[in-house]
Design a protein that fits this description.
296 residues, 10 strands, 38% helix, 16% strand, binds 1-butanol
């Protein structure tokens, strides 16, 4: 049955909720409040990252949300990510994960992702994740922002197929080649920036469909992603939008309308590793991990 508690079975048998709350670019306080609100309204998946700098707030929200709603830890699915400057061998990554678990106030995470494929370190880091998975510290492992070349190398040189590849995915950025490649290897595509940083919301086709189905533009897009079987994390810190974003289960887009949105793809990413100075000295972003406190 469609709903916030609907799950998809990952390639290792772990069930992952198909729609969750993301907290990128959110302060610790706002993350805490948004997570409590989301759990209150039925969300069961929460996505954060060390780079977001809000694991303490997110974890506080998870713990408080569980308490308020009488949930057990296993009722929730928590994802976090290993950031670029902290990639490395098992000893290094294991220490980072311990710090992340301590910041979150949790004993384990459900999904641990390599946030970006730093060429010099992602393979070694993935081997560390494989070992952490075998030790039971994380229930599933995966990657984020991996193109097909990097994913192919990873598949050739590792033992465990990643459960998830989390990518920028929305109507104007549909990652067709990556989606096809990942699906053919049993890797679930998960969307970050599902609303295209707000840009997709202004698309005239989305606007027309919003009027046709008497829904908001965000609901049309999120419903499209749902019908495309893309696991999605959507961000909001406002209760009204947290509710609105999850109110997509009592209507269905026709096959023709799904197809109309499929045709909006411009194959233009908003953010890619070329934008970071760790990959390209002229990139528009620095390595944000420098802002994250050192691990003692
Ligand atoms: C730089 C962060 C992208 C989404 O996780």
């Amino acid at each position: 049955m469609d709903g916030l508690q609907s799950t998809i079975k990952l390639n290792n048998g772990v069930e992952m909720p198909r729609l969750g709350l993301g907290v990128w670019k959110t302060s610790n306080n706002d993350s805490r409040d948004a997570v409590i609100t989301a759990i209150k309204h039925g969300y069961r998946a929460i996505d954060t990252a060390r780079e977001y700098g809000n694991e303490p707030g997110t974890g506080a929200g998870i713990r408080e949300g569980m308490k308020q709603e009488g949930l057990k830890r296993e009722d929730l699915f928590v994802t976090t990510k290993l950031y670029n400057g902290e990639q490395g061998d098992y000893d290094k990554v294991s220490k980072v994960l311990d710090k992340q678990l301590s910041d979150l106030g949790l004993d384990y995470v459900d999904l641990y992702l390599i946030h970006w494929p730093v060429d010099a370190t992602y393979m070694e880091s993935y081997h560390a994740l494989e070992r952490l998975y075998k030790e039971g510290k994380v229930r599933a492992i995966g990657v984020s922002n991996f193109d097909n070349d990097r994913m192919s190398k990873l598949l050739e040189e590792s033992e465990i197929v990643p459960a998830v590849n989390q990518m920028e995915f929305n109507p104007t950025q549909q990652e067709k080649e990556i989606l096809n490649f990942d699906s053919s290897h049993g890797i679930q595509l998960e969307a970050w920036s599902p609303l295209g940083a707000g840009k997709a919301l202004k698309n005239p086709v989305i606007d027309e469909l919003a009027k046709k189905y008497s829904r908001t533009a965000a609901q049309i897009i999120l419903r499209w992603e749902w019908q495309r079987d893309i696991v999605t994390v959507v961000k909001s810190v406002h209760e009204k939008r947290i509710v609105e974003n999850s109110d997509i289960f009592d209507f269905t887009l026709s096959a023709e309308d799904v197809q109309r949105i499929n045709q909006l793809d411009e194959n233009k990413r908003d953010l890619w590793y070329d934008d970071f100075t760790w990959h390209n000295p002229n990139g528009r972003y620095g390595n944000e991990i420098e802002q994250v406190p050192d691990i003692q």
